[in-house]
Design goal:
The complex is a heterodimer of chains A (358) and B (427).
Chain A (H helix, E strand, L loop, with lengths): L12 H4 L6 H21 L2 H27 L7 H18 L5 H20 L7 H21 L12 E2 L4 E2 L2 E2 L7 H24 L1 H11 L1 H6 L4 H28 L1 E2 L1 H4 L2 H14 L4 H25 L4 H22 L3 H15 L5
Antiparallel strand pairs in A: 1-4, 2-3
Helix pairs in contact in A: 2-7, 3-7, 3-10, 3-12, 3-13, 4-5, 4-6, 4-10, 5-10, 7-8, 7-10, 8-10, 12-13, 12-15, 13-14, 13-15
Chain B lengths: L1 H15 L6 E7 L6 H22 L7 E7 L4 H12 L11 H14 L3 E2 L17 E2 L5 H15 L8 E7 L2 H17 L2 E7 L7 H10 L3 E5 L3 H12 L7 E3 L6 H4 L10 E4 L8 H11 L14 H24 L6 H9 L2 E2 L1 H6 L9 E2 L11 E7 L4 E9 L3 H18 L8
Classes of the chains: A mainly alpha (358), B alpha/beta (427).
């Protein structure tokens, strides 16, 4: 009825190939942006920002990064936690070595460092595929965590091996450290997420993304039609690691403030981001958002309902949480193996025909 | 049915809504995950003591205590969520029971003007109250523990451990790395050889470390372990027939559940402590009477006298005494977190008070001051008897090498102050 292409005429190529060709989608997208930038910052408090929004924004960036690698280029990676650690430690070293430089630049540079490391660990992908590549990236995960634990230079020789973010400001407003305002850190991460999503979306629609997808769908055929697997695979590793590195840097500097590599960036982090990508939907930017929101919000909601509303003991709720999240993941994968993004796609198809399906 | 459920839910919400006049003590506990074995008795002890105060004395200074429990699973992200969700309820003091979460909360809580009590864990240099205004780690810290262990080795070796080999098996995290610097400094002073063997989280895999110990044959093994790592280490030590009496754990590696799985093989294992063990204290009779028998115990009520239960109760007692002190200083019953901080800084525990509380000789007498948030750092040694299944104190609480530790604390806290541009707190 209201969700349809009819009457929405495109007169230029640019208009025809835009991200949201349907007017209703486009309006929704702009409304979401306006709400996120102009309304939500006024509603932020410490709890909302630290329990829900910061983890969601940061994990969404990581999920976009991993989705490029796994969903678009078909290279399975279990090294996300390790690459996030690279971003975090790069950011820490930059922050402490060049305190006068803007934190925004540090975080982008941390993403750049991670991209280099990602390319390095992506090299084996030229020779090995599938499960074997997963094992190779798993090695990256364990090696990187071991490295940051082992070499004191990375944590500035502190006695405990913890890294903690000193206070850094942007336009005179504290972004890291203890004296931050909820709205400031929220907006800071939101800007990173929106830019990341825009870049990722446009990369995947362009020739680079088509090469990635060609490699994913059948690498030999792609090579025959002229896709260079070296460039395609390594660029996927570089772009993916760049986003993952940015998320790691934000995770350490803005969200947690103090980090211990084995605990914060262990193998469970790699799995968590992979679950986000799988539940959200492989090969979909929207899916990265949906997956991150699902896995960040669900535990918080379950805790609120169980502990605060029903007054159950905390340990029972924590155990139930594991059971419920696990069960939901299985249910999702059985009912909709293509993830939340596919559910959304089906909904849109139905909406186009509604209310006259025939 | 639906109506019934809705009424029940509503009732639960009303019951859970905080009465504003209560003194709120959050308990960031972990009853799940690989560290639950240690987290449960501590959380039970912490909760039961406050329940006892409510039931027997009507709270602290007549104001009832409200305990907010939040499950962290020893995970820093959940710890942050717990901190943010409880601080709005008027939390007076945080006891994170995790070095990682403590590090996280030190700057946050300082900015929010809420004190942290990391009793025997956390950031050791927080003992310097001049830099860490809101962090307290009395009555002892890890560097006291490291020095206490070495002092004990000196004691049983007649004052000379030159050339002895000491191995440190540690949890490869901020927690486990804490003692290394102190042990290195002390090895320069006393001339022993130190080798450090890291064990990765969660610590179930220690074959290679113990293989190395079997090859190197150190004279003594120290352990900084927690959770499942302790049980595995003691079992592995038994497997390579390492003499248990030469194996000493930190106070987080010396509870019943750590030694029981190894059975008789664990006999003679030693652990450090900063408070007494066992259940022969009058306070436990009160807990049994007012809390457990009344069906108000936090857990099953079977943990009383367990090392970590005692520690949780001790932490609750120190928090309650600090709250009392704060009430006296500020002349009001309804204290805030800022007043609580003043109370903790003016806390004074002596033996007469301990007797009055039903805990004679349970912990050391000490005074907290603005400069010294770390307490006296007295360390005792306990030993496990596998046949009677009890811990007993074999070396009384003795002072540690404050000269070495004081220098390290000054150095580390000065670095922190410089990094975060903190000004002197005590003028």
């Amino acid at each position: 009825m209201f969700y349809r292409e009819a009457g929405d005429f495109k007169t230029t190529y640019a208009a025809d190939s835009q991200t949201f060709p349907i007017k209703f989608d486009r309006i929704g997208y702009y409304i979401a942006l306006i709400v996120a930038f102009c309304v939500l910052p006024f509603m932020m408090n410490d709890y909302l920002v630290n329990a829900i929004f910061l983890p969601f924004l940061i994990y969404a960036i990581a999920a976009i990064g991993l989705n490029i690698l796994v969903g678009y280029c078909g290279q399975v990676s279990l090294g996300t936690g390790g690459f996030m650690a690279v971003g975090a430690y790069a950011c820490y070293k930059l922050m402490t070595s060049f305190p006068e430089v803007n934190i925004f630049i540090h975080i982008v540079l941390a993403g750049g460092v991670t991209a280099l490391v990602g390319v390095l660990f992506g090299l084996p992908s030229l020779r090995i595929k599938g499960f074997y590549l997963a094992v190779a990236t798993l090695a990256a995960q364990f090696f990187l965590v071991w490295l940051f634990n082992r070499v004191p230079w990375f944590y500035n020789y502190s006695a405990s091996g913890q890294i903690s973010a000193p206070e850094r400001t942007l336009f005179g407003i504290a972004i890291t450290g203890p004296n931050t305002q909820p709205w400031a850190v929220y907006l800071f991460c939101l800007v990173f997420l929106v830019i990341s999503a825009l870049i990722a979306r446009n990369l995947t629609r362009g020739s680079v993304g088509r090469k990635w997808m060609a490699i994913r769908d059948m690498d030999i055929a792609a090579e025959i039609i002229g896709v260079d697997p070296l460039k395609a695979k390594l660029s996927a590793f570089a772009v993916s690691s760049f986003f993952v590195g940015i998320s790691g840097a934000l995770f350490f500097a803005v969200y947690l403030g103090a980090v211990e590599v084995g605990e914060a960036f262990g193998i469970q982090k790699s799995f968590l981001v992979l679950f986000m990508v799988i539940i959200g939907g492989l090969g979909s930017i929207f899916g990265s958002f949906a997956g991150a929101a699902f896995l960040v919000l669900l535990p918080v909601v379950l805790k609120l309902v169980g502990v605060d509303m029903l007054g159950w003991p905390t340990d029972i709720v924590a155990h139930f949480q594991l059971v419920i999240v696990g069960a939901l993941i299985i249910v999702f994968l059985i009912l909709e193996p293509h993830g939340l993004a596919q559910l959304w796609r089906i909904t849109k198809e139905k909406l186009r025909l509604w209310p006259f399906p025939h | 049915m639906k109506l019934k459920l809705a009424t029940m839910a509503l009732g639960a919400i009303m019951a859970a809504a905080p009465a504003m006049a209560d003194l709120v003590f959050p308990s960031l506990s972990y009853r799940t995950g690989p560290y639950a074995a240690g987290g449960i008795p501590f959380a039970d002890g912490y909760a039961d003591y406050f329940t006892l105060l409510n039931e027997r004395d009507g709270g602290i200074g007549g104001v009832p205590v409200k305990l907010l429990e939040c499950e962290t699973g020893y995970n820093t992200e959940k710890g942050v969520e717990c901190y943010e969700s409880t601080k709005g309820e008027g939390a007076l003091v945080y006891q994170p029971l995790s070095t990682g979460i403590t590090y996280q909360l030190i700057p946050k809580a300082t900015a929010d003007d809420i004190p942290i009590h990391s009793m025997g864990y956390g950031r050791t240099s927080a003992a310097n109250g001049d830099v860490f205004s809101h962090v307290f780690n009395y009555p002892g810290n890890y560097w006291n523990g490291a020095s206490g262990a070495i002092n004990y080795l000196l004691e049983i070796n007649g004052g000379d451990i030159k050339g002895k080999k000491v191995a440190l098996v540690y949890h490869n995290s901020a927690y486990g790395k804490e003692p290394i610097r102190t042990l290195e400094e002390l090895s320069k002073k006393h001339g022993y050889e130190l080798s450090a063997l890291p064990v990765d989280h969660p610590g179930q895999e220690q074959k290679s470390q113990w293989l190395q110990i079997r090859r190197d044959r150190p004279d003594y093994v120290l352990m900084w372990g927690w959770g499942v790592m302790n049980q595995v280490a003691i079992q592995e030590a038994a497997n390579i027939r390492f003499p248990m009496e030469n194996f000493i754990g930190i106070w987080w590696s010396g509870a019943e559940h750590d030694v029981l799985p190894a059975g008789d093989a664990a006999n003679g294992y030693k652990a450090l402590t900063f408070h007494n063990v066992g259940r022969d204290f009058p306070v436990f009779d009160d807990i049994q009477k007012y809390v457990v028998d009344a069906g108000k115990a936090a857990g099953a009520g079977d943990q009383i006298g367990n090392v970590l239960y005692n520690r949780g109760m001790y932490a609750a007692m120190l928090a309650a005494e600090a709250a009392k002190t704060a009430q006296e200083i500020h002349g009001t019953k309804d204290i805030t977190a800022a007043m609580m901080r003043d109370g903790m800084e003016a806390l004074s525990i002596d033996e007469a008070k301990m007797v009055e509380l039903g805990m004679p000789n349970f912990g050391p007498a000490f005074n907290v001051s603005c400069e010294n948030h770390g307490g006296p750092g007295l360390v005792g040694v306990t030993q496990w008897d596998a046949s009677s299944k009890t811990w007993s104190l074999i070396s009384d609480f003795k002072p540690t090498d404050t000269e070495v530790i004081g220098a390290l604390i000054a150095e580390d806290s000065a670095a922190y102050a410089a990094e975060n541009s903190i000004e002197s707190n005590c003028k």
